[in-house]
């Protein structure tokens, strides 16, 4: 039971990450590999506010999301000028720089030593210390993120995002300032990733920069490629499958070290096979 | 169609709340009681650079458990280890602690091997009332961190002081430091730097991440400072190996100080005998004449056809299992009681000698100064 | 200022390594026009090939190096035939190719880790104790000198092949416009396969040299790839000589950058350079401006 | 009244002038044909007018505003819209959404809180009916035939309700009955008082539809006038035959 709860919490966190990246990659066609950076910024802001400032989790989570959004805004101003491969490379650059800052701004982040002992959330005297209560909280946040994303994708804004993915230049002729749309969706996605980061920090109670590097960005990306680009449900399904996969591998009886590597092999092969035979992913409508 | 969908969603939400709420209620009323094998959690590194410790240390723990089990176990029940990979990394250790505490429901954990593992796991185990016993984490910050944390390996506050005093005594005033970015290494540096400054010296530090491979520019920068000595604080012999190779290539000349994990690896010391000639180290020493120490070394050599490396950790790891077994026999399978018992240990005889735990949860022992001579460790002043 | 001499040498060493990756990356990119992340995996394959032949089988250094380079070349050819050519035939977009190559990178690294463990291993058994040469106050080992020589030699050879042979003309034709090249009777698939073999051999060599210099572990290719791609873009994407220049620019920026700021920021310096170029000169040093 | 005038408009690619100090006048409320051999700069002119390419020199006057630089996102605000020579519909978006793009709010904040209203959808459906794509309303644009995509592009342009509409070779690849429908639409647009600019190679269509024709060659204006006058001009014939 507890084990199931643990996986369910991790699933919710990664589903939020997948949904938020889906808006950027799947809907808008911007291949961002900086997402783990915003996940990390949210996690660090929440961790530091909880631990050093003694703030309540919920306002801290809000500030974490806003902090991620602010950084995303500054990066996005530059990044929104690019498209396709160059967008991916630019975001890679910023992702690595964000990681370097988390790693090396030691006065604030304690660098590679990480931040231990992050407290669990509290609301009106109730502490979300049991995993069950934490799962409830994560599900509520996941639901909120999903509902908001759904609202977004059904709006005229969502339609414009998809048109950007298809032909940014042609869309601009119809009066859309496409770079503002790209900036907006990047900032919104970063805010959601910040929420996921805060949830992660308070759940695991320990964070260090290693959880927010480029490899993690690539992992989040593989969630939505597997689930299917351009589909919110696909993002959720992708997160579910890839969170359960390593457990299945462990169940088969690999040692932890081999299981970790086998997981990587399966991710890799999955990506290749999907690209060869089903580039739209499990549930996606949109082909890259 | 639209209406029906909404109703479905609502039903699912209600069901979820009922399910989760119900499970919550029942989960609160469950208690684990021990009627079978005694489960002890282990958080050691099995992947990454520090994996060089994980495997031999697990062997040592198993040797201890086999001996205890052969002699009747704990009240007739055998000891079983639940082993998790802490990767010498905080996140992995925190995950491992979460799993051991919440899923395996252990009451006592041996670990983390690395200070970073212990620092990350401690808040989780403490909150859950689980005892955390480290036989190797040496960061000074762990002293008195929680009533539920105990260790039988000394704090690096003594390693840093012993080495700093040796440096000053040998006329070093300006000391270059190459420090791995881990809690263990940072802890040693902090103490070392304070002690050097107190004695009118200075340090120049360059840090490196565990996955660094190219130290040339850092070395060049330190070389340009023209220091009297260089203190290499590596968290594992693996990064030390890379550093020594490049130090040699770049013709490093001034004398060296090395952290205890380097001195604890005889192969590494032998391989770089010429570079390390005259280098100082401070280790928590081993006593070859202690029969309990011989017991574990012999058992290990017999079973695995090779002498165990890192013998300072072998002795404390071996003792850890016996101490915990004794604690459970005395006070039962309860984390808080086990921790309380362990913190009261006085003049206990084990492979690491006579052990007394002080009020900080640290052992009343320290590091001794050693010097490397033709690829071998010699204790200074014996 | 003896530190400047050593830093220059360090920059040249790092630059040579990146140059091998960047030149071969650009060589393949010129004809295929997609970011081939699997290129990094081939550096790892080369390094482990040498490890296997030299350390596990115990054959001499020269055989081990040849074995590593050959393994990388073969692996590159296999990837082209099994993955990239089928994708091209399906008119897959650049992003599809990029993601497939990412899958290859992830899978290959993990497979190597399963067979050889993820532990760091040195190849010093093969090279023996490092022999060093002093240039003024700077020190360089034989392996590092070989790196520099290889980078220069590969660059020169590529120049000869590309500009003086009919094979080179065919490559340039495919790089300019694959469709037109097809019409004038060039078998583009053969040319691209040949480029994969040559490029993979070069990047394999970079992995081998890196392994001999520092040691090997499964993720070494990823690190080399990131730096190599930065160098390739900074120099001018798709331009072989641009890759050469860009690599040394990155090498110097990294090593002289950390003279002034602390060494931990090395990664950030390279990527900062990338972002600067993307913003102010996206076509790179030698690239042609696109509209 | 003039819809668009250009003065010494210039666009070069790598030193070659695709539009070479071109000064033209597009009269309002007429169907203006632009013809010329391949590579004469017709499409470049369209791209410069709609901000796809940045102009290298000269002035464009649209309505009353003088401009030395046009950004593509400002074109809509100038009451100008276009179709593309190489169809550029939003492939993996539904046909209806392709048209709605032109109708719904264009600002980031405005669009965020807007869902297509019944009136907007009705409007889009009407435009689709006008080009004859009603049946394909819910299909993805990617599933349409080439001709249908051309029609979709025209629908998208019509939906903007712009005053000036630039058609870049709209007839290429269309079946005869579709050709008739598109010609009908152009005449309707003219009847509504809108300005139509038509780039076309088919001289029969130019004769049939256009009030005024501009002939371009090597980025310059070679001739202009009524279709009959222009098409019998010897220098035009020479340019086309490439003697």
CA gyration radius of chain A, whole angstroms: 18 Å
Q: End-to-end span of chain A in angstroms?
A: 39 Å
Largest sheet descriptor of chain B? 7 strands, mixed
The number of E-state strands of chain B comes to 14
Whole-number total of structural domains of chain A: 1
Number of helices of chain A: 11
SSE-based structural type of chain B = alpha/beta
Mean pLDDT of chain B: 87
Strand order of the largest sheet of chain B: 7-6-8-9-10-13-14
Strand content of chain B: 15-25%
Element-level helix/strand string of chain A: HHHHHEEHHHHHH
**Poorly predicted runs of 5 or more residues of chain A:** none
Judging from the principal axes of the Cα atoms, what is the shape of chain A?
Answer: globular
Number of strands of chain A: 2
Instruction: Report, as a whole number of angstroms, the end-to-end distance of chain B.
Output: 88 Å
SSE ordering of chain B:
HEHEHEHEEHEHEHEHEHHHEHHHEEEE
Give me the oligomer status.
heterotetramer
What value does the Rg of chain B take, in angstroms? 23 Å
Lateral strand order in the biggest sheet of chain A: 1-2
| Beta-strand share of residues of chain A | under 5%
Short description:
The complex is a heterotetramer of chains A (288), B (382), C (291) and D (243). Chain B has 382 residues and is of the alpha/beta class.
């Amino acid at each position: 039971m507890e084990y199931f709860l643990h996986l369910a919490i991790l699933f919710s966190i990664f589903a939020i990450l997948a949904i938020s990246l889906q808006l950027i990659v799947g809907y808008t066609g911007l291949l961002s590999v900086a997402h783990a950076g915003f996940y990390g910024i949210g996690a660090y802001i929440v961790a530091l506010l909880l631990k050093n400032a003694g703030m309540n989790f919920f306002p801290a989570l809000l500030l974490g999301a806003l902090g991620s959004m602010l950084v995303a805004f500054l990066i996005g101003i530059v990044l929104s000028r690019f498209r396709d491969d160059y967008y991916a490379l630019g975001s890679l650059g910023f992702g690595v720089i964000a990681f370097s800052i988390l790693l090396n701004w030691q006065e604030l982040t304690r660098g590679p030593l990480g931040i231990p002992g992050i407290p669990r959330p509290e609301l009106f005297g109730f502490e979300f210390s049991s995993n069950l209560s934490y799962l409830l909280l994560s599900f509520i946040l996941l639901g909120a993120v999903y509902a908001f994303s759904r609202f977004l994708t059904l709006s005229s804004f969502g339609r414009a995002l998809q048109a950007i993915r298809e032909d940014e230049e042609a869309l601009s002729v119809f009066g859309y300032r496409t770079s503002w749309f790209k900036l907006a969706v990047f900032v919104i996605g970063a805010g959601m990733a910040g929420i996921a980061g805060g949830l992660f920090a308070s759940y695991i109670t320990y964070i260090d920069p290693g959880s927010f590097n480029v490899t993690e960005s690539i992992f989040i990306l593989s969630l939505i490629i597997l689930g299917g680009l351009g589909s919110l449900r696909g993002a959720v399904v992708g997160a579910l499958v890839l969170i359960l996969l390593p457990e299945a591998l462990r169940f088969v009886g690999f040692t932890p070290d081999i299981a970790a590597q086998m997981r990587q092999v399966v991710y890799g092969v999955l990506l290749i096979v999907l690209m060869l035979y089903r580039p739209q992913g499990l549930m996606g409508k949109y082909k890259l | 169609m639209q209406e029906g969908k909404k109703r479905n969603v609502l039903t699912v939400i209600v069901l979820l709340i009922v399910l989760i709420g119900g499970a919550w209620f029942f989960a609160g009323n469950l208690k684990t009681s021990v009627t079978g094998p005694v489960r002890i959690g282990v958080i050691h590194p099995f992947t990454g650079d520090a994996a060089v410790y994980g495997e031999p240390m697990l062997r040592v723990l198993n040797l201890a458990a086999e001996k205890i089990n052969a002699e009747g176990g704990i009240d007739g029940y055998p000891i079983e280890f639940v082993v998790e990979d802490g990767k010498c990394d905080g996140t992995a250790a925190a995950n491992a602690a979460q799993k051991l505490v919440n899923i395996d429901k252990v009451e006592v954990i041996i670990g983390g091997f690395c200070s970073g593992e212990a620092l990350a796991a401690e808040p989780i185990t403490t909150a859950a009332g689980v005892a955390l016993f480290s036989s190797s984490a040496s960061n000074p910050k762990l002293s008195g961190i929680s009533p539920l944390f105990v260790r039988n390996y000394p704090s690096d506050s003594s390693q840093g002081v012993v080495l700093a005093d040796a440096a000053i005594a040998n006329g070093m005033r300006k000391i270059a430091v190459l420090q791995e970015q881990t809690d263990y290494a940072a802890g040693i540096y902090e103490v070392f730097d304070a002690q050097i400054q107190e004695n009118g010296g200075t340090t120049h530090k360059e840090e490196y991440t565990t996955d660094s491979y190219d130290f040339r520019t850092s070395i060049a920068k330190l070389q340009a400072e023209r220091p009297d000595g260089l203190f290499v604080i590596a968290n594992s012999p693996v990064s030390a190996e890379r550093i020594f190779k490049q130090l040699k290539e770049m013709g490093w000349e001034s004398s060296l100080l090395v952290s205890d994990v380097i001195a604890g690896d005889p192969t590494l010391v032998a391989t770089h005998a010429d570079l390390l000639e005259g280098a100082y180290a401070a280790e928590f020493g081993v006593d070859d004449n202690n029969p309990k120490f011989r017991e574990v070394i012999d058992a290990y050599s017999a079973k695995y056809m090779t002498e165990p490396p890192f013998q300072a950790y072998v002795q404390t790891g071996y003792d850890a299992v016996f101490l915990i077994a004794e604690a459970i026999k005395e006070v039962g399978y309860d984390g808080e009681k086990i921790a309380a018992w362990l913190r009261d240990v006085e003049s206990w005889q084990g492979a690491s000698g006579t052990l007394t735990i002080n009020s900080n949860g640290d052992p009343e022992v320290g590091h001794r100064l050693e010097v490397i001579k033709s690829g071998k460790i010699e204790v200074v002043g014996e | 200022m003896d530190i400047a001499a050593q830093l220059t040498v360090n920059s040249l060493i790092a630059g040579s390594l990146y140059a091998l990756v960047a030149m071969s990356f650009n060589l393949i990119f010129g004809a295929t026009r997609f970011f081939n992340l699997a290129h990094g995996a081939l550096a790892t394959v080369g390094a482990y090939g040498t490890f296997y032949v030299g350390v596990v089988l115990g054959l001499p250094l020269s055989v081990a190096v040849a074995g590593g380079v050959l393994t990388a070349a073969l692996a590159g050819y296999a990837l082209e035939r099994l993955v990239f050519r089928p994708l091209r035939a399906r008119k897959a977009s650049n992003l599809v190719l990029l993601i497939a190559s990412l899958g290859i990178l992830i899978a290959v690294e993990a497979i190597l880790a399963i067979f050889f463990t993820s532990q760091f291993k040195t190849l010093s058994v093969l090279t023996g104790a490092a022999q060093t040469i002093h240039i003024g106050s700077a020190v360089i080992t034989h392996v590092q000198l070989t790196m520099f020589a290889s980078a220069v030699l590969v660059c020169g050879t590529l120049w000869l092949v590309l500009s003086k042979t009919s094979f080179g003309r065919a490559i340039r034709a495919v790089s300019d416009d694959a469709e037109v090249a097809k019409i004038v009777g060039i078998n583009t698939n053969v040319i691209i396969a040949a480029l994969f073999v040559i490029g993979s051999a070069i990047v394999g060599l970079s992995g081998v040299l890196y392994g001999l210099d520092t040691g090997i572990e499964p993720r070494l290719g990823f690190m080399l790839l990131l730096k190599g791609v930065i160098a390739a873009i900074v120099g001018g994407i798709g331009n072989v000589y641009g890759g050469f220049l860009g690599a040394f620019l990155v090498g110097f920026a990294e090593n002289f950058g950390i003279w002034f700021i602390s060494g931990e920021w090395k990664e950030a310096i390279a990527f900062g350079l990338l972002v600067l170029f993307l913003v102010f000169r996206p076509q790179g040093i030698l690239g042609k401006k696109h509209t | 009244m003039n819809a668009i005038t250009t003065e010494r408009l210039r666009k070069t690619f790598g030193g070659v002038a695709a539009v070479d100090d071109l000064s033209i006048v597009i009269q309002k409320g007429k169907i203006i044909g632009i013809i010329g051999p391949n590579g004469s700069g017709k499409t470049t002119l369209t791209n410069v007018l709609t901000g796809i390419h940045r102009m290298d020199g000269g002035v464009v006057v649209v309505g009353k505003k003088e401009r030395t630089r046009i950004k593509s996102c400002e074109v809509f605000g100038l009451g100008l819209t276009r179709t593309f020579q190489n169809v550029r519909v939003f492939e993996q978006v539904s046909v209806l959404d392709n048209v709605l793009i032109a109708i719904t709010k264009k600002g980031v904040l405005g669009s965020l809180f807007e869902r297509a209203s019944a009136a907007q959808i009705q409007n889009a459906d009407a435009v689709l009916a006008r080009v004859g794509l009603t049946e394909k309303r819910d299909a993805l644009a990617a599933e349409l035939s080439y001709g249908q995509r051309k029609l979709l592009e025209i629908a998208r342009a019509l939906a903007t309700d712009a005053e000036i509409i630039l058609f870049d070779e709209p007839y290429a690849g269309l079946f005869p009955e579709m050709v008739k429908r598109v010609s009908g639409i152009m005449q309707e647009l003219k009847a509504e008082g809108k300005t139509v600019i038509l780039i076309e190679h088919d001289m029969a269509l130019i004769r049939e539809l256009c009030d005024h024709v501009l002939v371009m060659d090597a980025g310059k204006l070679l001739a202009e006038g009524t279709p009959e006058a222009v098409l019998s001009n010897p220098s035009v014939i020479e340019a086309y035959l490439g003697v």
